[in-house]
């Protein structure tokens, strides 16, 4: 059952609006329109063939960026419903959060960041903002999707503030500064980088963590990178596995794994809901703007559960993301993007005609960024096809 709308939820009737003013819809709220625009975007469809952990052709049952985003949205909406938040805004942010990811998962991001190190680097959050802010070309009156301020804020700040009140970068941005795509955008449309984002954005962010943990366990089991007994190394998963064994002593491993994933998601959602309720009862925000003014996120794991969740991430890092099979494939994938970037930089005429405008300009930085945008939009299979077109030998990535 949905909770009544909370006073601290984002109210679509009080949205700060869009960069390009549009008449309101007669049938949909501003946040519902945002969500629909994300779903109908070209970038969203491309997520079907973008790597989560396994390259698309390694198996039909592994997560892709698209299925991961759908699972994040399901978890986020469940939390938003319990907390009385705006579900449409929450779903928008959950579905949009990976639009800026390049092909081949984090390996692709590392490769593009290295290629663009002299031109501001690559950051997938900044790239998502570029996608929804300018790279989508679907509307006659503006580039991008012209999302509401609240959606743009959530895309950029769902993991917390990027600067302090004075504008100095904080956290992971302290060393290298605010990514170019974000720094340029806020000159036109101020997203208040110093404040926390809405509770809807905070819910979408933690739903991403929950989905990663549970579904990477599922994919890792399916791929044979580890087995259920290996997961007994962590207290939380060991407890869940023991509970499953007590209720279903003769259950086969495939169903045991699926039940583990289901129970883990339920446990983490319940823990986050309880912690958010406790935090909100203490801080008592009366509006979405009150939430932005607070000194810490309100949607979080309780301390004990945060330690359990961190243990899961460490396990997955060691047994999955750093597994020699995954590392070999991702190393080859990185080289594919290095090759493509160097080729396009040297021979811009190899780019599609619509990307040639400005790509051969004297400004090397502008040319490099355009090439980076083109590569970031590729699917895994298109990157492989392009590499096969331009080079004599292409890795199989299996």
- Quote the average pLDDT: 94
Indicate the structural class. Answer: mainly alpha
Question: What percentage of amino acids are in beta strands?
Answer: under 5%
Series of H and E elements? HHHHHHHHHHHHHHHHH
Spans where pLDDT lies below 50 across 5 or more residues: none
Number of strands: 0
- Over the alpha carbons, how many angstroms does the gyration radius reach? 22 Å
The CATH topology assignment is Hypothetical protein af1432
What can you tell me about this protein's structure?
This protein is mainly alpha-helical and 398 residues long. It has a single domain (1-10, 29-390), classed as Hypothetical protein af1432 (Orthogonal Bundle), CATH 1.10.3210.10. It is built from 17 helices and no strands. Helix 4 (87-96) crosses helix 9 (199-223) and helix 14 (324-346) packs across helix 16 (364-376). The chain is globular and about 65 Å long. The termini are far apart. Residues 65-213 form the HD domain.
């Amino acid at each position: 059952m949905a909770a009544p709308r909370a006073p601290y939820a984002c109210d679509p009737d009080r949205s700060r609006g869009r960069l390009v003013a549009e008449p309101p819809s007669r049938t949909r709220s501003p946040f519902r329109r945002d969500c629909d625009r994300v779903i109908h975007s070209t970038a969203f469809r491309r997520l079907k063939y973008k790597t989560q952990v396994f390259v698309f052709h390694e198996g039909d049952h592994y997560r892709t960026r698209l299925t991961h985003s759908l699972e994040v949205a399901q978890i986020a909406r469940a939390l938003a419903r319990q907390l009385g938040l705006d579900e449409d805004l929450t779903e928008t942010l959950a579905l949009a959060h990976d639009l800026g990811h390049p092909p081949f998962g984090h390996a692709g991001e590392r490769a593009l960041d290295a290629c663009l190190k002299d031109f501001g680097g690559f950051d997938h959050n900044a790239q998502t903002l570029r996608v929804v802010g300018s790279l989508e070309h679907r509307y006659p009156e503006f580039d991008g999707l012209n999302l509401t301020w609240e959606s743009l804020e959530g895309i950029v700040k769902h993991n917390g503030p990027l600067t302090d009140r004075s504008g100095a970068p904080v956290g992971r941005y302290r060393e290298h500064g605010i990514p170019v795509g974000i720094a340029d955008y806020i000159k036109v449309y101020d997203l208040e980088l110093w404040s926390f984002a809405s509770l809807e954005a905070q819910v979408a962010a933690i739903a991403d963590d929950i989905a990663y943990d549970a579904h990477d366990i599922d994919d890792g089991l399916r791929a044979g990178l580890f087995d259920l007994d290996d997961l007994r190394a962590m207290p939380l998963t060991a407890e869940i596995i023991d509970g499953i064994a007590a209720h279903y002593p003769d259950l086969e491993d495939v169903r045991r794994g699926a039940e583990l994933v289901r129970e883990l998601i339920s446990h983490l959602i319940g823990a986050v809901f309880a912690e958010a309720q406790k935090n909100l009862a203490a801080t008592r925000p009366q509006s979405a703007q009150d939430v932005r003014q607070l000194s810490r996120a309100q949607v979080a794991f309780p301390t004990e559960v945060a330690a359990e969740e961190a243990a899961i991430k460490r396990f997955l890092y060691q047994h999955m993301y750093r597994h020699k099979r995954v590392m070999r494939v991702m190393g080859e994938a990185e080289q594919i993007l290095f090759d493509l970037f160097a080729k396009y930089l040297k021979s811009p005429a190899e780019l599609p005609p619509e990307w040639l405008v400005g790509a051969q300009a004297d400004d090397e930085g502008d040319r490099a960024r355009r090439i980076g945008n083109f590569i970031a939009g590729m699917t895994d299979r298109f990157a492989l096809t392009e590499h096969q077109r331009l080079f004599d030998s292409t890795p199989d990535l299996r």
